[in-house]
User: Fold this.
Amino acid sequence: MSKTDEEQLRSALSFAQADLEGWRDGDLLNAVEDLEGRPRFREPGRIKEQLVSIQKGLRGLLEQVQEVRESLATTEGAKGKDLFPYIRIPFTVNVDLRAVPPFTRLQMVYHSKDPNAQRYLVAEAVLRVADLLTRVNLDRLKVCPECKRLFLAVRRQRFDTPQCSLRDRVRRFRDKDMRRAKKGTKR
Assistant:
C-alpha cells in the first residue's frame, strides 16, 4: 500500500529531524526500505552512514525553506507579491514519469546522474521532498513552539505532537497556579 503525498512528506519531515543515534539496527533498515524499497546492503554501519547523509541533505533543504518563509514573514508588504526567492538544489538528475496502480495518477521519479551511490540517494531523497513540498500549502508547514521541530499542520494545529501540547498546557497551568499562590488566593 503506497502512502499519500502528505504522509510521505510527514515521514520525511520526521526523518529529517530525528536523532539517528537512538535508532536500533532494525529501525535503520526500515528507514532505508521506506526511502528506496529494498536496501542494497544490510550492514548497520553502512546503512547508518547512508541515512546520515540523506538526513543532512534533507535538513539543508528544510532549513532553506524555513529561512525563506521567515524572511517573507518579516518583509513588509510581501503579501500578494511574487517575492519568493529561488531555492537552488545543486543536483543533475533525470526525471521519469511512471504510473502507479491503479494507474490513475502519474508519479515523478528522480534519478541522479551522480555515479556515487551515497550522493545518488541523497539527491533522490532531497528532490522527492522538494517535489512533495510543491504539493502542499506552505502555510501548513509550521514550527512547534515547544520543541522547535518543523511539521505539517492539520487545520489549526499548533504543536507537532500531543506530548508537546500537554507540556505547554501543564506549564501554563503551573504558571497560573504560582501566580495565584503569590497573590494568596486559592483555586
